[in-house]
Write the structure tokens for this entry.
Amino acid sequence: MEYYSLNRKAPKTNFENAVIKGLAPDKGLYFPEEITPLPASFFEDIDNKSYPEIAFEAIKQFVSPEISEDTLKTIVEETLSFDFPVVQLDDSISTLELFHGPTMAFKDVGARFMARCLGHFNKNNTKEVTVLVATSGDTGGAVANGFLGVKGVKVVILYPSGKVSDIQEKQLTTLGQNITALEVDGVFDDCQDMVKQAFLDETITSKIQLTSANSINVARWLPQLFYFMFAYKQLHKKHDEIVFSIPSGNFGNICAGMVAQQLGLPIKHFIASNNANNVVTEYLQTAQYNPKPSVATISNAMDVGNPSNFVRIQEIYNNDFKRLQANLSSFSYTDEQTKAALLEIYKTYNYVADPHGAVGYLGCKAYLKTNPNAHCVFLETAHPTKFLDVVENVIKTKVELPSQIEAVMDKEKVALQISDYNGLKGFLLNTI
Ligand SMILES: *Cc1c(COP(=O)(O)O)cnc(C)c1O
């Protein structure tokens, strides 16, 4: 598959290069040149296919020929070594649990897939890369875990001091080996700005091959389309009008869902569920896209003021506002509403959601008001214990820690403090 830059001022390139570069030389996001729908038989036979088989068929066109079919089979099998259960709450609402991976947020799949692709490209030790990534919480842990010990890949994670949960901090600061955590005196946007500046800094890029493991990287972004197929497999016999409510921040996950739809998956509608960071909710109401500085909320992985994947969504719908509006609704909720939803879900269904999932639940409820025949699946993007304080305070009940979380609790944090771009630059030039 060839990839082109959405800024359209850089040459096309193949999958391997798109993964190694992260961003095109003109700073545009890469986008696949074609999305060829899967044959109808793929969906008709879906009940007979395993998750790795579904994933293999679905992503093959995007990674070939640089990744051979045999290699791809191994990569998807290793990536998807845990479950993706749908839990039905009632006739109209289900949740797709995407938190059964090693760091208990949905980013595990993209991080594990990308790490294996980079490891494969570097098998002859010729393509050393440094993955530079800013995290608002979950990306850091997923990337640290996914890339731990991958040959020829160094990982540098920037996270905002005091703005990630304790468990999230442990997950990204305790692994060692090829992973370094930089604790930034600032907010997530500062981390993201520093990463962007480093990509533009020739004194760095002339010495080090930098790439990104945020969802701008096609190998992190595209595997997320699997989730929608896994949910479909579990639900299609019971429900024929399936809609998804996706708690969204950088809009990578929802955009991958839209790629699944382009591949032919019968998804009736998407709901982008947002916290107070509501630039897309406003856009769908006003047709004005006004990025804003992010504000901190209890669903911190969605605290994004200028979602990087929105340009990809615009591309999928051909920049046609009406077409986008027909496929996508968006709602935005305050922290108070989110907490009330957590409690409602617990009281009504005896189900413990996390703050992101609770925002997704509210999106379902809002959509179902005017579309009562739909079956709405909200994505549970993280395990509730990643946000233990908030969740336990609201439902007034202790939640048991899963083994993945238990395992990092007692480990010692190792992070380097930096306060500005020079701190990052010095680290990269002197240490990497
Ligand atoms: C990253 C993340 C999101 C937002 O996903 P995007 O792809 O950036 O829209 C939502 N919930 C959780 C728990 C996350 O970690």
Notes: Residues 83-105+220-401 form a domain with the Rossmann fold fold (CATH 3.40.50.1100). The pocket of pyridoxal-5'-phosphate is lined by residues 105, 107, 138, 215, 247-253, 301-302, 356, 381-382 (CB under 6 Å).
